[in-house]
Specification:
25% of the residues lie in helices and 21% in strands. The chain contains ten helices and 23 strands. A five-stranded antiparallel β-sheet has the order 6-7-8-12-9, with helices on one face. Strands 14-13-15-21-16 form a five-stranded antiparallel β-sheet. A three-stranded antiparallel β-sheet has the order 1-4-3, with no helix packed on it. Helix 1 crosses helix 3, helix 1 crosses helix 8 and helix 6 runs antiparallel to helix 8.
């Protein structure tokens, strides 16, 4: 924490000025009168009693505005979890609701996932009373059981290529080597637990359903999936979580082939949101697709995001791409859905369809060239237990992040647009016969 009289480094100024010192770093603000910088020989800046210090900073562990989620914990620490703030009261909720989603995410569930064995049993520590949310923060904890930190001894000195090892060192100068710390996919336990709450809220309030599936593994694509009809049962019918059963077997064979060679491969997860209320999102910086992209791209190993027609839309003509409107049973619909359920940053009531690309797992059992923390070139064959392909276990993670965004925007939309009902709006209309007496010209002359 910054206190008066502390040294702050670096602030780049060539000469003393009459402008106040401005330091940006945490959520505190102290405004003062102008005071000349006091410079020292070692080129540090002294914050004196009349300098301005503006500290504002997030540490990137909290997501959301009205429905806020903070995750905590590390892969080989004592546990991981989340705190959810902003969940409305009186929503039925139990540990069983969360456990169902966590079981879909947990390791060791099949031969094509990491062999690490974790029950991932969750504990709700607060925010739920007699099976109902109380409106206070909901804290969820999952304790780690099956850590093997010794498997990471080589990685304590050598960086894994394309992993977060090096960049964490660049930024912090220290890192949790065992399990990858916060860069491990184990951090997503908190997201999935929070996502289970968001899913329940969306279903209860709007009947919204968020379902994802594996649509690609390496170069194998699932082409026979009806986005409007596939179910959770279809997705969970096989270990790769692809509702196209023929493609699913080819995907499983592909993952096993690269696993047996000590390699890894990537893939794509498609997520479909049905019965999304119209009007979620905002026109400019808080566009719904922008928040969905941020949420999806915050997941480990993500490298691409598409909505609706995605990049393919850039190769179409306007007449080919536009979603024409029509009326069905008194409801305005679109004949096609190349917009992916969002137009102008706001949901239009059609299915929201997004696709997220995941890269191959960084940690592989093949020798690779790298460098040590001291900058010496070396070879590394990584050990540890890792997924040969992350996408089967990424399905519930994607669903959770998408659900968190929708729940957040649902609450924001209610706060801004749900305050005035149709009846209240009608009462704001000037009554007949009073229009003249309340006209601007008459009001201007009133005393």
């Amino acid at each position: 924490m910054l206190v008066e009289g502390n040294w702050i480094q670096p602030i780049q100024t060539s000469e003393p000025t009459n402008q106040p010192t401005r330091v940006v770093c945490c959520e505190t603000k102290r405004r003062t009168k102008k005071h000349p910088h006091e410079r020292k020989a070692d080129d540090r800046t002294y914050v004196g009693p009349t300098d301005e210090v503006v500290v504002s900073a997030g540490y990137a562990n909290t997501f959301g505005t009205s429905f806020r989620v903070t995750t905590f914990g590390e892969s080989h620490g004592k546990g991981v979890g989340c705190v959810v703030d902003g969940c409305p009261p009186r929503l039925p909720l139990s540990e069983k609701d969360l456990q169902k989603e966590l079981d879909r995410r947990r390791p060791g569930q099949s031969i094509i996932t990491t062999p690490r064995k974790e029950a991932d049993a969750c504990e709700i520590l607060s925010g739920v009373v007699d099976g109902m949310t109380s409106g206070t923060p909901i804290a969820v904890l999952v304790r780690n059981k099956d850590q093997r930190s010794k498997d990471y001894s080589e990685m304590s000195v050598a960086y894994r290529p394309s992993h977060a090892d090096a960049t964490y060192d660049y930024k912090y100068g220290v890192r949790a080597v065992a399990g990858g710390g916060r860069s491990s996919a184990r951090e997503t336990i908190g997201r999935v637990a929070a996502g289970a709450i968001a899913k329940k809220l969306l279903q209860a309030v709007a009947g919204t359903e968020v379902l994802a599936y594996v649509s690609e593994v390496k170069d194998i694509k699932a082409n026979n999936v009806d986005l409007g009809k596939f179910t959770m049962e279809d997705v969970e019918a096989n270990m790769v979580r692809c509702p196209d059963q023929e493609s699913a077997q080819a995907m499983i064979d592909q993952i096993n082939e690269v696993r047996n060679r000590g390699e890894s491969c990537g893939g794509v997860v498609t997520c479909v949101c049905r019965n999304v209320p119209r009007g979620l999102g905002a026109p400019v910086f808080d566009k719904l697709e922008a928040d969905l992209a941020k949420a999806a791209m915050s997941l480990p190993a993500t490298k691409g995001f598409e909505i609706g027609s995605g990049f393919a839309g850039s190769r179409m003509l306007g007449s080919e791409h536009n979603d024409e409107f029509y009326v069905e049973d008194g409801v305005v619909r679109t004949r096609t859905n190349r917009s992916g359920g969002i137009q102008g940053g706001i949901s239009n009531g059609e299915h929201i369809v997004v696709r997220i690309a995941f890269k191959p797992t960084s940690t592989i059992a093949i020798k690779q060239q790298t460098v040590t923390r001291e900058g010496e070139e070396t070879e590394l064959r990584a050990r540890g237990r890792h997924d040969p392909c992350v996408v089967p276990r990424a399905v519930p993670m994607v669903e959770s992040m998408i659900a968190l965004v929708l729940a957040d925007h649902l609450l924001q939309n209610h706060a801004q647009c749900g305050l005035l009902t149709d009846e209240m709006l009608a009462n704001l209309v000037i009554e007949e016969g009073r229009e003249e007496e309340t006209s601007p010209s008459n009001l201007a002359g009133a005393t």
